[in-house]
Write a structure and sequence with these properties.
The protein contains one helix and four strands. The protein is of the alpha+beta class. The chain has one domain: ACT-like. Chain A, domain 2 (Alpha-Beta Plaits), CATH 3.30.70.1150.
Length: 72
């Protein structure tokens, strides 16, 4: 069994769901208050850093990152 982690990343602004593949396959949900949530499982910390780097490349404001563990 590999230990993977479920992440929920909140950013200011609205992203279209079509960007999901670019963000390592994380699901994209736009809240009514203009916050976008990217969530799902990432295989390792390198994948998380990749997502955070892409958030920075889009010049999005990072609100929060939360993680919970899950056996897969």
């Amino acid at each position: 069994m590999n230990k993977t982690f479920y992440y929920e990343i909140r950013v200011e602004g609205q992203l279209s769901g079509r960007w999901s593949d670019w963000f390592e396959g994380l699901a994209i949900h736009v809240e009514t208050d203009g916050v976008t949530i990217l969530d799902g499982f990432l295989p390792d910390q390198a994948a998380l850093i990749g997502v955070l780097t892409r958030i920075q490349a889009f010049n999005l404001v990072l609100i929060s990152v939360s993680r919970s563990s899950s056996e897969r």
